[in-house]
């Protein structure tokens, strides 16, 4: 259930932690599937799941194609109402097309040494990832659900955010100077304003993508595993060009299918072409 405190904290900080969103048994099911998929080299496919590898990490794109435990996340009740409220669209024209759309669904399997550089921020003004509140409604362009599949504490390479930066009009001065000088990537652990979010397996981190974020370097042995679904309004398009398989669409519930494919293609039917005189 969405509370007034959820709304206040999301507006203030740009993120929420939803405790115990997913059961440990559900987490174990997803980990077992990833164990079966991995290792998968960059560019390889496992069914309809595609691997992208870089920086001691493997992204498993289209992870909702990997089985029912991942499909269950599409409209999970722990966050579904929150997403609808923060993205907006219900009760407006968008409602005719479904209020939500998943433009990217993937898992990250990261080994020790991997990290994600700091990126995004309200100053960029990107419509796709924007934070927006107008006339009593949230109209956010992209809300992410990051679900850890194991406990994430110190040394595990947790997600880091700069609270409030989703509404910033200016880039972080250190980041701006760094880029001006043509230096390499900036990692959030180098900035005192960045906060590392520690979570237990099954907690969910909900955040607007315009918040400045990244992840700390993993220094502990073992793997950091997370599942990320990116949600936006139904008029969006797939970020990386993947398309859901027919098999997946047939398995999903009507609500899930609408989220994954809010605008099915309308095929041209020559049989219905009105004939014209030459």
Tell me what the structure shows.
This protein has about 280 residues and is of the alpha+beta class. The protein has one domain: q2cbj1_9rhob like domain (Jelly Rolls), CATH 2.60.120. It is built from 7 helices and 14 strands. The strands form 3 sheets. Strands 1-12-9-14-5-4-3-2 form an 8-stranded antiparallel β-sheet. The protein has a 4-stranded antiparallel β-sheet with strand order 6-13-10-11, with no helix packed on it. The chain has a two-stranded antiparallel ribbon with strand order 7-8. A hairpin with a 2-residue loop joins strand 2 (about 45) and strand 3. The longest helix is centred in the N-terminal third of the chain and has 14 residues, at about 25-35. The relative contact order is 0.22.
Cross-sheet strand order for the largest sheet: 1-12-9-14-5-4-3-2
Determine Rg (CA atoms, Å). Answer: 20 Å
Strand content: 15-25%
Shape: globular
- Biggest sheet descriptor: 8 strands, antiparallel
Q: State the low-pLDDT regions, or none.
A: none
Number of domains: 1
Individual helix count? 7
CATH fold name: Jelly Rolls
What is the CATH class? Mainly Beta
Number of DSSP strand runs:
14
**Element order, helices and strands?**
HEHEEEHHEEEEEEHEEEEHH
Let me know the average pLDDT: 93
Give the terminus-to-terminus CA distance.
62 Å
CATH superfamily: q2cbj1_9rhob like domain
Structural class assignment: alpha+beta
CATH architecture verdict:
Sandwich
Helix content: 10-25%
Summarize the structure.
The protein has 7 helices and 14 strands. By secondary structure, the protein is an alpha+beta fold.
